[in-house]
Amino acid sequence: MNPDTDLKNVNRRSFLRLSACAAVSTSSLFSTLFNLRQLNAAAAASGTDDDDYKAIVCIFLYGGNDSNNLLIPSDAATYATYAAGREQLAIPQNQLLALNSLNADGRSFGIHPSMTGCHELFNAGDLALVANVGTLLAPATLSDYRNRTAAIPDHLFSHSDQQVLWQTSINENASVDPTGWGGRIADLIHSTHNDSSISMLVSLSGSNFFQVGRTLLPFRTDSNGSSTYDILNGWDSHATTRAEGFRQLLDKDYANLMEKAFADISNSAIKNADTFNEAIATANDFEMLPDSSLGRQLRMVAKMIQSRKALGQRRQVFFVATGGFDTHGPQLDSHAGLLGGLDSAIKGFHEALGSIEAQDCVTSFTASDFGRTFDTNGRGSDHGWGGHHIVMGGAVNGQRIYGDFPDLNFGSAHDTGRGRWLPTTSVDQYGATLARWFGIPESELPTVFPNIGNFATSNLGFMS
Amino acid sequence: MSSKFKYTFVPIAALALLGGGIYLGTVFRPSPLDAESSQISPLRSPEEIKRVRSIPKPKAPQITVPDEPTTTATRINALAALNNPTSDPQTDIRIIEHLLVQARTVFHKLPIGENEEIVAFLQGANPREIQYIPDDDPNLNADGEVVDRWGTPYFFHALSRDRIEVRSAGPDRLHWSEDDVISETQTPELPNT
């Protein structure tokens, strides 16, 4: 269609129609720009000095952690209910590590005997526990769940679906972009807080949904540093020549759009990897962290936090993960090992942050597919729903248990069957409490957590 | 012809023609008697009408109710070949997996939950009330769970919305032990579990 002819044929009615469309599109653009300006102003008001650094670290426990044996009631009556329900999975009462909780409800709890580090951090006020957190779209009672009178997440008890829902907080049929809540946080604040070509989203554990943003994607590295092309590695003369040739190929000016795009992306990735590796080259070794997969991932996180100025980052969202928590089979010993590994990594990470005076600006939290059945299958436990989680850091209002601990009696108001606890705190509330501390304004919380308005509060109070 | 003349003359002429037509139609309208006489044909004389009306009308055919079908509707029994001594345990797993694929095709999702909840779904507790497994299926135990050839309930391991790993506890009747039987086409564990 000839544009000149179009302009000649514009009449009053079509002019008004086109103007209305233009007004709608520009108003949304101006709204976005206005929000960004507000965020910039908020950032400026909060100060841009060196101390204005914050990071959140998601520790994902793949498989569905049996947190029924992480946080255990220790008063005589409730422990008896616990022991009767868990049967052979019960941790003996005299082995529990007692929590000196500041909660005023008069209840007493202990944690798993292999979690000595977390026990110490809890009692020192640097660690809190959040009870019965799970995927929810809106508050739901047992009747709501059974009769579907409230919105219930799809594909409960399924590993991959619940991993996605925990990391995105968006049900599959929702009419919003399927991005992760870590990515949505980054979309809002990356440009106003960071001066770096490297994404503020950093994954130490490969692909994940948590860090998928609308405009940002995670910078993926591993515990040894960032690498791009194998051809760039090697130290002999042939390898050096090959690497130089490869770089020259990428530096050529290509007329073909595909070739040009490939060369640009590759050059950007190589430049980011070089910047990253150079920045962390002088970081500490953080030997207090264990030489486990999770320990090595957190060691690299600590190095990046220490190198934050060289990387130009004032806000970072990290993702680390460990697996093996799908404990259907013989569980007691394997789960003790899994919790022990998590414990030593968390404790070591806290010490590492302490050594670089970064404990107050970094908050770590656990997440998992789901909790597990309180009932045993005879050897282990099966897929559940709500579970207890750990939040650790200097800014955490520690030594407390947040949320509502479920009634452990089978058939209780929290039991959807076999002790699959109906969550009493949503992932949205859990994440929103962290996001608010991280700098997301109250008005933007629904952008990050679309369902947060369905819940009574968006602040569980565990962050200062 | 100027446009002003055209816009004035044409409507006036049309109105004049319309009015004239109405007048002529009123003046030369045929009388009702002429109309009646023109419609009566020689065959419609009063005698003829009486004769035609005296002809008996044909009787309506007698309605009969069909007999009850002598054969009953075919029952679906998706587990008919399960735990057959002449087949192997792998075949049993495939039979159940095939049934789950059928259900997913119809309902666009897999049933979720424990063994008895999945069996209940397949026995008719589903949106279309399709009964894939009859109530008296010999492969069900007293708790409504489908059991393997050693009498242990199968374990339905929900890996994703599209994939349930069906597990038999095997001869030792202990789940998650060395002799468990699972589909040969499936990997034992998801990478992220």
Question: How is this structure best described in words?
Answer:
Helix content of chain A is 40%, strand content 12%. Chain A has 14 helices and twelve strands. Chain A has helices at residues 3-8, 12-45, 76-86, 116-124, 142-147, 159-168, 181-193, 237-251, 257-280, 293-306, 308-311, 332-355, 427-438, 445-448; strands spanning 54-61, 71-73, 97-98, 109-111, 127-134, 201-203, 219-220, 315-322, 362-368, 387-392, 401-402, 425-426. In chain A, the strands form two sheets. In chain A, strands 1, 5, 6, 7, 8, 9, 10, 11 and 12 form a nine-stranded mixed sheet that branches. In chain A, strands 2-4-3 form a three-stranded antiparallel sheet. The model of chain A is unreliable at 1-5, 21-30 and 43-48 (pLDDT under 50). Chain B is elongated and about 110 Å long. The model of chain B has no long low-confidence stretch (mean pLDDT 82). Chain A binds chain B through residues 62-64, 154-161, 163, 321, 323-326, 328-330, 369, 377-380, 382-383, 417-418, and chain B through 109, 112-114, 117, 155, 157-161, 174-177, 189-193.
Question: Can you give keywords for this protein?
Answer:
heterodimer, A: 464 residues, nine-stranded mixed beta sheet, disordered N terminus, B: 193 residues, mainly alpha, Glycoprotein, Type 4 Pilin, 2 domains, 3 strands
Please trace the helix and strand order of chain A, writing H or E for each element: HHEEHEEHEHHHEEHHHHEHEEEEHH
Largest interface: A-B, 29 and 20 residues
Query: What is the class of the largest domain in chain B in the CATH system?
Result: Alpha Beta
Number of helices of chain B: 5
Calculate the terminal CA-CA distance of chain B, rounded to whole Å. Answer: 90 Å
Give the topology, please.
The complex is a heterodimer of chains A (464) and B (193).
Chain A: H1 3-8, H2 12-45, E1 54-61, E2 71-73, H3 76-86, E3 97-98, E4 109-111, H4 116-124, E5 127-134, H5 142-147, H6 159-168, H7 181-193, E6 201-203, E7 219-220, H8 237-251, H9 257-280, H10 293-306, H11 308-311, E8 315-322, H12 332-355, E9 362-368, E10 387-392, E11 401-402, E12 425-426, H13 427-438, H14 445-448
Parallel strand pairs in A: 1-8, 1-9, 5-11, 5-12, 6-7, 6-8
Antiparallel strand pairs in A: 2-4, 3-4, 5-10, 9-10
Helix pairs in contact in A: 2-7, 4-12, 8-9, 10-12
Chain B: H1 3-27, H2 32-39, H3 46-54, H4 89-107, H5 115-122, E1 155-160, E2 163-168, E3 181-182
Antiparallel strand pairs in B: 1-2, 2-3
